[in-house]
Amino acid sequence: MLINVTPGSRQKAHEPWTLEKLYHERCLALGSAIDTAMLGPYNSALNSYITFCKIHNFPVKPTGDTMSYYIVFMSAHNKPNSVSSYLSGICNHLKNFFPNIHKIRNSPIVSRTLKGCRRLKGSEIKHKSPLSRDNICHTIKILSLSSDYNDSLFLALLVTGFNGLLHLTELSMPDSKKLRNWRKIVHRTSVEWLAKGYAFFLPAHKADTAFEDNKQGVLPYLIQAHGHWSSTAFKIYIRKNPVLLQTMIDTRALSI
Fold it and tell me: In the chain, where are the structural domains located?
């Protein structure tokens, strides 16, 4: 079927790509579809599914029965909430080979099996108590007089993370170089001192694929007043220590 361009339509002239270039660019796009931090867990989930199929002599092709059996088997060794995350990784890897895998994942037998495992094998959520301002003030009181670099760095991380509502993973880079995503790193040149604070440019965030660049800011008096730092000394410390600047990785928009 031949469809002509609509008369009067203004289309820019572009050079056609070769099939090899189209294939290459598509591979790059597919490889960037998920965050690099999720590659490890997703690969682990796929490996566990393939291993499950092999030891039980099931075909790898997903079915409602196979996935429901996988859920009850894995729930006997892991928390059901973790098994739910495994299913996401399995679907992500196999959807190109089995396009209906999401339909199978959301089928009644799979959903109800997972729901039942959560009720039978679910456990209470355990987490650390949240930090309070008293905890922060106590830490500042102890470390503010220290001349050790690591103490100063830890204190800067703690105060910035507390006032910026940041997760631990948003304050540091992964040890594994494979998991580092340089598109998320705040550039040193983006740090800007304001009349009542400082700000930096946030390039990207993994939880929002349509994220538009944003700015982050933290009021310096929150650090200086408690830490007993002079304005000049604190600015020099921020500018000349890239480790501290890297703590501003992948942070979310905040308002203080």
Answer: 19-121, 131-164, 172-251
Q: Over the chain (256 residues), what is each successive 10-residue block's mean pLDDT?
A: 64 84 86 74 91 95 95 91 91 91 94 93 76 89 89 85 70 77 72 71 58 50 50 52 42 38
The Cα 27–Cα 7 span in angstroms is 34
Q: What secondary structure, in 3-state letters, does the chain show?
A: CCCCCCCCCCCCCCCCCCHHHHHHHHHHHHHCCCCHHHHHHHHHHHHHHHHHHHHCCCCCCCCHHHHHHHHHHHHCCCCHHHHHHHHHHHHHHHCCCCCCHHHHHCCHHHHHHHHHHHHHHCCCCCCCCCCCHHHHHHHHHHHCCCCCHHHHHHHHHHHHHHHHCCCHHHCCCCCCHHHCCCCCCCCHHHCEEECCEEEEEECCCCCCCCCCCEEEEECCHHHHHHHCCCHHHHHHHHHHCHHHHHHHCCCCCCCC
CB 197 within 8 A of CB 160: no
Q: 83, 74 in Cβ contact below 8 A?
A: yes
As a CATH number, domain 19-121 is 1.10.150.130
pTM of the model: 0.59
Q: Alpha-carbon distance 67 to 193, whole Å?
A: 54
Burial class from Cβ neighbours inside 10 Å (0-12, 13-18, 19+) for residue 128 reads exposed
